[in-house]
Amino acid sequence: MALSDEPAAGGPEEEAEDETLAFGAALEAFGESAETRALLGRLREVHGGGAEREVALERFRVIMDKYQEQPHLLDPHLEWMMNLLLDIVQDQTSPASLVHLAFKFLYIITKVRGYKTFLRLFPHEVADVEPVLDLVTIQNPKDHEAWETRYMLLLWLSVTCLIPFDFSRLDGNLLTQPGQARMSIMDRILQIAESYLIVSDKARDAAAVLVSRFITRPDVKQSKMAEFLDWSLCNLARSSFQTMQGVITMDGTLQALAQIFKHGKREDCLPYAATVLRCLDGCRLPESNQTLLRKLGVKLVQRLGLTFLKPKVAAWRYQRGCRSLAANLQLLTQGQSEQKPLILTEDDDEDDDVPEGVERVIEQLLVGLKDKDTVVRWSAAKGIGRMAGRLPRALADDVVGSVLDCFSCRRDPEGADLRREAGCLQRGHQRQGRRLLRVLGLRACL
User: Fold this and answer.
1) Which has the least CB within 10 A, 174, 268, 295, 418?
2) What are phi and psi of 165, to 5 degrees?
3) Which residue segment(s) compose the domain that 376 sits in?
């Protein structure tokens, strides 16, 4: 072929090839089902160690990693994969090495699909509570080779905490022998959760999930919520983000508190919100060089703010018009405008007192908008969007004014790029940004 006959770079042939490759990368189904089933069926033969065990683990990782961008394709197969692995775990004759290997495989699946989806498939009947609790109890938190086992067991225990029966019914007679009493189920779970909130591995994250499910139970919150919150605040007060152990302790504690104020009922959490906010102010997290701690601090602050404010739909919100494109076009051809004018009326609760802590929460969220790390700014942006949707019109307008100041660099050129990005994040967030747009619509009418 002559040089003049060769297709130019970026020509139709090359574009067609790129398009073919792009479509070829899109998976349509879980194609390794048979291989995975065979792989899981051979775990009893390869668990002893050596090359075969590592080859099986690595092959399973390769298969699962292939679906990182399309994890939903695994959904029809999650149940049978979990059943094969849990059969090994629940078999009393399975050696410890085989049980740990099964949990490693479970963790790999969870890492790809996400624990929230995978969590629903764990057995969570009344009969599962004590066996899972016993399995967690015999684990060694210092065994760095089996952290996947502890992580998955804590998640499993968190699901069993959703049973609709009081834990006291499972205790039976706590007096095993005269003068000797054993711990109740409730105390055992709380002790395990607290001990794993301060470990250095990923089991800390699972312990935070466990705490949020356990403490918010109707039978537990009455007797254990105040005790646990007091323990948590003491941990925060004693810890310093300048030491490694302090960072670990604060990380687990902040995760647990944020999850509790997210999943707990407002009337249960409100009596403690002001105390937690004061303790959080004393931690001075914005001064920490740990990005994760600053993010968790912002996350907890916004949850406290939402606890202070009653859930409601603001009366001044933007009224969306007709959602049918055909109907809108028909109205335009008729010379009519479907969009109704925004009529500003006094909020029914305009005279309600806004809790004192709300102003401090918004101040901290605005500080978070100017943080140097995107994940912190993103969390602060979501928090302000959620808070503004529950505020009276006048206060929401003040919040919008403060957000708009993020775009201004006249007074302080340093950090102007971060503030502009923070403002964009605030409006660009897919869900919370819509709430701020309603506020901006109000501001245009004032």
Assistant:
1) 174
2) -125, 150
3) 299-309+362-409
